[in-house]
Design a protein that fits this description.
By secondary structure, this protein is α/β, with parallel strands linked by helices. The protein has 19 helices and 12 strands. The chain has 3 domains: 144 residues, no CATH class; 97 residues, NAD(P)-binding Rossmann-like Domain (Rossmann fold); 167 residues, no CATH class. Helix 9 links the parallel strand 5 and strand 6. Helix 3 runs antiparallel to helix 4 and helix 11 crosses helix 12.
């Protein structure tokens, strides 16, 4: 049994102790907002020390109380406790409510307070709030989650393929806030067994014994006959019932339920098929690439010099890879390997057959003999070797966020259908696989991450991945 699974097998009395966790999230948000105000005041004072009247303590006190109204806005959009919301959904809800609340504060200052508050401080504060509140929330949820202190106990109905998939997902995605405590199924052969470390506790009728203790159940039995299924749902006396239909493989973000005269409909928004969305994504790619390239140029130059001093030869490496619509593109990178890398790899795999199995699964080696000492290790761990690909972004061959452009030998490990799906979008400088598994993800993980990204794309998902990229690059985890 994995450690993650073992940690979820807690008693209901222990789970009830988690009820105070949302208050911790509220306190951390309050601290983040007040810190944003302090930084906003300091920034306004530093940038424009001689403009406007002096900012008094009474003004700051009024704004300090005003920004706390955001906590009510966060509550209204479901961030407390936020169970069942993924990181992208929480980020979008938080951004909308933060901008709306600060717009209201600016209007309040203009209409009611007769412009007594500093608009410069408010504008600087909203900028810091948009950054600090999601960062501090993510850190708080991570700490509480690792200690088993944040989450809603849920019961899974169904021990079949769908139920197993749900159990695995909830255990691997603690950020969703659903803590599975067990599984129910009418198959006696599955009773007193375990799935993903979760006990199969008995038949579906046993669900009534958890009333008042478990607030949510997840029904994962899409193959159940319709009449029996409807009867089961009506008989569940729980505040929240989540039904998992037989729609695995379709997108899961940005799905809206519709009431079609008593018929339930699900509306899927395929954002990447909207031409304006693709043009907007390209505009953002180009604008950010220009800014980042300007800042990155000195770093690229110093790294290139370091490479040439260690191993004379070209500092940059070009490789043909598959781009949008299957068009070959020449991807540019800082060279992190010896010039005879291919020969070194062949010799290493021939003398270490156990390493060939890992190579065939990941196309990565933890102790790669091809990598240059010091500079190669540093560049790969920090991902700075990818910076020259900003040129590919400026040329329109790549995007800042998207499926990574793999070498052709790597692509041969994927199915033709998945390769066709990947070529429907521009490859990216970073992607969902990089921020979730990096080098530790095998071909199946890579396919799952890229498929999820393409089917669920939105600007919010791109922003979320960019933030996560900064986090994993700073930590240097999973890269080699």
């Amino acid at each position: 049994m994995s450690a993650a699974a073992a940690e979820t097998r807690v008693s209901l009395s222990e789970i009830r102790c988690r009820d105070w966790a949302p208050y911790v999230l509220v306190l951390m948000d309050a601290a983040a907002l007040e810190l944003s105000l302090l930084l906003g005041w300091a920034t306004r004072t530093a940038l424009f020390p001689g403009r406007g009247a002096a900012i008094t303590l009474s003004q700051i006190s009024g704004v300090a109380l005003g920004v706390l109204t955001l906590l009510f806005g966060y509550y209204l959009v479901g961030l407390y406790p936020g169970h069942g919301m993924g990181g992208v959904q929480r980020f979008r809800a938080r951004t909308y409510s933060t901008v709306a609340a600060f717009t209201t504060l600016l209007a309040w200052d203009y209409v009611i307070m007769d412009q007594q508050w500093s608009r410069g401080v408010l504008l600087c504060t909203v900028g810091f709030a948009l950054l600090l509140t999601p960062v501090m929330e993510a850190g708080t949820r991570s700490v509480l989650g690792r200690r088993g202190l944040c989450g809603m106990p849920v019961l899974i109905l169904g021990a079949g393929k769908t139920g197993r998939s749900v159990a695995k997902t909830l255990l691997n995605e603690p950020g969703l806030g659903f803590v599975p405590i067990g599984i129910l199924d009418d198959d006696p052969g599955k009773w007193n067994t375990s799935i993903q470390g979760l006990p199969v506790l008995g038949p579906l009728t046993a669900a009534s014994g958890f009333q008042g203790q478990v607030k949510s159940v997840i029904v994962a039995m899409p193959g159940m006959p319709k009449n029996r299924f409807v009867q089961l749902i009506h008989g569940l006396s729980f505040a929240n019932v989540i039904i998992v239909p037989d729609l695995l493989g379709l997108q899961s973000l940005w799905v809206t339920s519709r009431d079609l005269g008593g018929i339930i409909g699900l509306e899927f928004k395929k954002n990447l098929l909207v031409p304006s969305n693709r043009r907007f994504k390209r505009l953002i790619d180009y604008s950010l690439a220009v800014c980042i390239s300007t800042l990155a140029a000195p770093v690229i130059g110093l790294c290139a010099l370091w490479i040439k001093l260690l191993d004379p030869g070209p500092a940059f490496f070009r490789q043909q890879r598959e781009g949008e619509d299957g068009t070959p593109i020449s991807v540019l990178k800082l060279r992190t390997m010896y010039r005879d890398a291919d020969a070194l790899l062949d010799r290493h795999l021939s003398t270490h057959p156990e390493e060939r199995l890992r190579w065939n699964r990941y196309f990565k080696l933890k102790n790669d003999p091809r990598v240059l000492p010091w500079v190669g290790v540093f560049l790969r761990r920090s991902s700075l070797d990818e910076l020259p690909q900003l040129w590919n972004v400026l040329r329109g061959e790549m995007s800042l966020v998207g499926p990574r452009p793999f070498p052709y030998y790597h692509l041969e490990g994927f199915s033709s259908n998945f390769r066709k799906l990947r070529t429907s979008v521009r490859p990216g400088l970073t992607g969902l696989w990089q921020v979730s598994a990096r080098s530790d993800g095998d071909l199946d993980v890579q396919e799952a991450c890229d498929t999820y990204y393409i089917r669920n794309w939105s600007l919010w998902l791109d922003i979320y991945i960019v933030f996560r990229t900064v986090q994993v690059v700073v930590r240097g985890a999973g890269a080699y």
